[in-house]
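re: ur msg from earlier - yeah i can do the flavin-adenine dinucleotide complex, just paste it... oh wait u already did. ok heres what im feeding in:
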Amino acid sequence: MTDTPAENAQQASFRSDVTVELVKHSAADSDVLWAARVSTAGEQSLDELRKDPERSKGLINFLMRDRHGSPFEHNSMTFFISAPIFVFREFMRHRVGWSYNEESGRYRELEPVFYVPGESRKLVQEGRPGKYRFVEGTPEQHELTGRVMEDAYRQAYRAYQEMLAAGVAREVARAVLPVGLFSSMYATCNARSLMHFLGLRTQHEQAKVPSFPQREIEMVGERMEAEWAKLMPLTHAAFNANGRVAP
Ligand SMILES: Cc1cc2nc3c(=O)[nH]c(=O)nc-3n(C[C@H](O)[C@H](O)[C@H](O)COP(=O)(O)OP(=O)(O)OC[C@H]3O[C@@H](n4cnc5c(N)ncnc54)[C@H](O)[C@@H]3O)c2cc1C
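and the outut:
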């Protein structure tokens, strides 16, 4: 027996976290070195692959500092990301050096998984545009936010299910679903495009040019950065040492 729209809405699940998995990669500090050394060594630069990259820390730092960016493009990382639609909406503004494929709301029925802020998410915004700061909410504000969001999500999903049950196409019925619904995508980038993303979508004490991203996209950025730092530790260190400005 199939569930009714109301029963399906009751089965909704609520998440405060995001998923980031590195599913495929070809990325190492030595990729930066051989690409850069073609300038002086021609085809011999491929010998760099067999050398200890630690010896070439200085070159990576020089490239980062003087913003010689193209040697940081000869690598690839593919992430599987699961996050609310409002995060993807910000994410896909990053056009250069990124490839995306997202699950379809036309070809499959969307699952009732929704975002609610966790306890550590600062809820209250103070100040004026460009100078916002976020402060903790009261326990009452946290309780209200969770409760109201869950009610609204359930109601929206019930409406979605009601239309599907009546034979309305998924691509039409999805119009009632909110941006707090989770979606999933593959996103492929290289170290240069990732650094540009991280410079804008994370807050960091070593950043020369501070940015003020929404916390939820920053959560995605932090997880991607942790994966990248393991693959390219010298490049990551040079990025931080040079103020987290993409070369
Ligand atoms: C804190 C924050 C707040 C934001 N608020 C808003 C907002 O209120 N409204 C809004 O619409 N967006 C907003 N954005 C999105 C922002 O405007 C950018 O679209 C997004 O950060 C992607 O940056 P990008 O264009 O540099 O990246 P990419 O698209 O990856 O481009 C990388 C670089 O390539 C070059 N480039 C790419 N395309 C062009 C082009 N057409 N012409 C010339 N050079 C190009 C630029 O040098 C660019 O920096 C915000 C972003 C942040 C980080």
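cool cool. The pocket of flavin-adenine dinucleotide is lined by residues 93-96, 196, 200-201, 211-213 (CB under 6 Å). ping me if u need the other ligands too
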